[in-house]
Amino acid sequence: METEELLIQAEDLLKPWTRWCRREQSNILTVSVSRRDLLQCVARLREAHWGYLSAITGLHLPGLTKTADEETQWSRLSHEVDIHSAPPHTGDSFVVLYHFCHGNAVLNLRVHPPSLEDASVPSICNLIPSATLYERELQEMFGIRVDGTPNDDRLLLPDEWPQGVYPLRKSSPSRQAGEIGG
Amino acid sequence: MANQKGSKFIIPIGPQHPALKEPGHFEFTVDGEIVTGASVRLGYVHRGIEKATEGRTWVQNLYLLERVCGICSHVHAMAYVLGVERLAGVDAPPRAQAIRTLTAELERVHSHLLWLGVAAHEAGFDTLFMYSWRDRETVMDILESLTGNRVNYSVNVLGGVKVDVNDALRDTILKGMDFLEERTRHYLNVVTTDSTFLARTRGIGIMTAAQAEELGAVGPTARASGVARDVRVDAPYAYYPSVDVRIVLAQAGDLAARFVVRIQELFESYRLIRTILDNLPQGELEVRVSRRIPEGETVSRVEAPRGELFYFIKANGSDKPERIKVRTPSLCNFGTVVATAIGHKLADMPMLLAGIDPCFSCNDRMVQVIDQNGASRLWSWEDLVRHGIETYR
């Protein structure tokens, strides 16, 4: 099947739960869904044998003052957006992207928990067992809680790493190029 | 080896692992000699590269990301530049794409030969290890002539490449491929006919196509189980659309199949290298890419020697990325070791680990063996390998 047909198929499969969708590039489709619908979406993709889960990416979105990116996205999507289901863009929040690949086609299933305090997503390990490593990484690096993930032991960070410090949050300091030591 | 209380014995293996690059820690639960459970702990060489990319410019990141892996450094740089060029809306010239692809295939040859030697060593077959590494020097010398380096070739720049192939180098590469092809034919013969070697590989660590899919296996590990998945074929990038990559598959799904698939992929790489050199497009090597990359998100996938390498890149319009996510193929394949280990002898573990060609680091490795009396002794990696070899003697 051609890439275009695959992406149209994915769009159709996820239509009942789609909040908005957009094309990043000719072969990349992003579909935003509510986290309570995530499992149904993943189950639907699995039933239809639409590709495989390639990775899970976490993103830290800064709060309203700096959300030019998200703002323009929202306006760009005018007719697709159900404004009532829009997340409150008042503070920092996370986005979790589930990347499914099928041939040349890439589908990003996008989940947007409302705030840092309420940052959790359901585990998809019952549907895709191999997601366990990605979910562990997401929990460690961002502090996004993955409800029901089968194993939440440390995967990547050292044993003595302090609790509650999540390196990939924007608030975590990073060393700049050229800095040595630390 | 369950004790009277019925509790389980857990054998920790790692984190240090001397033969392969990158350390990882596995815990195998054993009942006597048989593994009944396994778990994995990674991160001993976690350097925070994803975080570090956010504080560096697009150009600096090229050098940083090339250092994610010491074996397949070029594919990391390639996944990155292809993604960034896409966001920037530029296409590298055809000659640059051809040279990128050429380097990627040379790198695959070096990586697969390296793996062949390492895996042979784990099996106690050091003659094969030494011969295959001697022959690997041919491709290392070619890479050095082409790029100036044996590893971390630094071929890519944003918008193109900075090395070129002249006629003399072309002849050297072709001559090298002829030599390696002949040697590889011999190795294929060895791993498929040597009875002591087959005793270590045939029927060990069998993974069906359905399991491979379920466990998220990628690359040669998946293809040895009959899963026809290769980014070069499914989503051709760089110069791959102009060359017809033939996917190498095996159905057995055991260790022997993983050997056969990787060795046959070498033949395919030799063929691709010849095809690229015969049809090398003329023209520029590089186009200009602006220092700031326009806002956007992209996914860049390439076929590394170990399987699909995945990059997610988000740009915010500045000279630094907003986020770069790297998912390496070894991460996907670790899950398969944990699952296929169950039911096998402890002695098979070194080969099972080596069978996925993981990136593990060069340190001494200890195994703590706890016997029924609760006394423990430490095993080094050498002890474990010896245990494997003795068991099959």
Describe this structure in words.
The complex is a heterodimer of chains A (182) and B (393). In chain A, 23% of the residues lie in helices and 26% in strands. Chain A is built from four helices and seven strands, in the order H-E-E-H-E-H-E-E-E-H-E. Chain A has helices at residues 3-14, 38-47, 68-76, 132-142; strands at 18-25, 28-33, 52-61, 93-102, 105-111, 120-122, 145-147. Chain A has a five-stranded mixed sheet with strand order 1-2-5-4-3. In chain A, strands 6-7 form a two-stranded parallel ribbon. The radius of gyration of chain A is 17 Å and the shape is globular. By secondary structure, chain B is α+β, with helices and mostly antiparallel strands. Chain B has one domain (49-326): Cytochrome-c3 Hydrogenase, chain B (Orthogonal Bundle), CATH 1.10.645.10. Chain B contains 14 helices and ten strands. In chain B, helix 4 runs antiparallel to helix 5, helix 5 packs antiparallel against helix 6 (167-193) and helix 6 packs antiparallel against helix 11. The longest helix of chain B has 29 residues, at 94-122. The radius of gyration of chain B is 22 Å and the shape is globular. Chain B starts with 8 loop residues before the first strand and ends with a helix. Residues 360-375 of chain B have low confidence and may be disordered. The interface between A and B is large, with 45 and 42 residues.
